[in-house]
Amino acid sequence: MATVANRPSTSVEDYVKVIYDLQERGTGPVTISGIAERLSVSNSSVSGMLRKLCELGLVDHQRYGDVRLTPTGDKVALAVLRRHRLIELYLVEALGYSWDEVHDEAEILEHVVSDRFVDRVAERLGHPTADPHGDPIPTRDGRIAARETRLLAQLEPGSGGVIVRVNDSDPALLRYLASQRIGIGMRVELVERQPFGGPLVVRLGSESDQQEQSIGLGVAEALWIATDH
């Protein structure tokens, strides 16, 4: 069991976690500018860190090419994500946090809690498989459940499914979703897509209690759906 002292630095863990998250969500190649945007740093700062990550054997990156984690990088990222997502769930389940409050807290705690603490949290929570936003929680040995999902924004009118995951990087978005009572486990169907990047008309809820409403494209790009087959 790795100790906190033996882990990579906080900055290294932050970078590999973000790269893994960008890869996992499958919205396109991972680029320097994409990493910079997520971490709120300059492109030159990212380039410098990528050189270090390549030297550590955590990242493959050729100049002007895409960024990908190596198998070793994947292992480090999954360990960080396990800590982060279990902490988020514990804050909600045990301490009464709302889902828009936990991300920043977990960003700090994920670097300082021990593996023993994380294992105790997992045991107390019944070894959960997803955090409050539907993000899959890696197992202790680095496995993660594969799920076939699509962004609501990518669906065709008439298709739908169940919301299983919500992007959690923007607390304001999470508060908006909560105010609209849109969350994990809710059925959604795309009714109509307005032209020129306009809002989407969706049908929410079960057949016995459905409602139609318009949602912005930014919201639709944050909702991951397990589609009907």
UniProtKB/TrEMBL annotation:
What is its quaternary makeup?
Homodimer.
- Its name, as the record gives it, is Manganese transport regulator
Organism of derivation: Thermobifida halotolerans
What is stated as this protein's family in its record? Belongs to the DtxR/MntR family.
What are the alphabetically sorted keywords of the record? Activator, Cytoplasm, DNA-binding, Iron, Manganese, Repressor, Transcription, Transcription regulation
Per UniProt, subcellular location reads as: Cytoplasm
Q: Identify the Pfam families for this entry.
A: Fe_dep_repr_C (PF02742), Fe_dep_repress (PF01325), FeoA (PF04023)
Q: Which GO terms describe its cellular component?
A: cytoplasm
Superkingdom as given in the UniProt entry: Bacteria
Predominant location: cytoplasm
UniProt-recorded Gene Ontology molecular function terms: DNA binding; DNA-binding transcription factor activity; protein dimerization activity; transition metal ion binding
